[in-house]
């Protein structure tokens, strides 16, 4: 996977997280035809970039949490 494909996957994860419709990491892996570990690595990279993204088990999706101060 090159850096452009990786960025496209990360953008898709962010869009789906905003819609609360990512599904579980295994669902994303199946959808993107990559490993579940690659999905988790990309989510970690998104976090490092400053986005507060977390998996919510009750709805079964990643969510982007707003910072409340």
SSE arrangement:
Elements: H1 3-18, H2 25-32, H3 36-48, E1 53-56, E2 61-64
Antiparallel strand pairs: 1-2
Helix pairs in contact: 2-3
Task: Sum this structure up briefly.
With 69 residues, the protein is mostly helical. Helices cover 54% and strands 12% of the residues.
Percent strand: 5-15%
CATH topology: Arc Repressor Mutant, subunit A
CATH superfamily: Winged helix-like DNA-binding domain superfamily/Winged helix DNA-binding domain
> What would CATH call the architecture?
Orthogonal Bundle
Span of the ends, CA to CA: 38 Å
| Widest β-sheet, arrangement of strands | 1-2
Averaging pLDDT over every residue, what do you get?
Answer: 92
Main beta sheet: 2 strands, antiparallel
Tell me what you see in this structure.
With 69 residues, the protein is mainly alpha-helical. The protein has one domain: Arc Repressor Mutant, subunit A. It contains three helices and two strands. The protein has a two-stranded antiparallel ribbon with strand order 1-2. A hairpin with a 4-residue loop joins strand 1 and strand 2 (61-64). Helix 2 (25-32) packs across helix 3. The longest helix is centred in the N-terminal third of the chain and has 16 residues, at 3-18. It is globular. The mean pLDDT is 92.
């Amino acid at each position: 996977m090159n850096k452009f494909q990786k960025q496209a996957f990360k953008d898709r994860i962010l869009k789906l997280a905003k819609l609360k419709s990512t599904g579980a990491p295994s669902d994303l892996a199946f959808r993107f035809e990559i490993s579940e570990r690659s999905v988790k690595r990309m989510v970690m990279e998104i976090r490092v970039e400053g986005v507060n993204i977390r998996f919510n088990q009750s709805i079964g999706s990643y969510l982007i949490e707003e910072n409340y101060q």
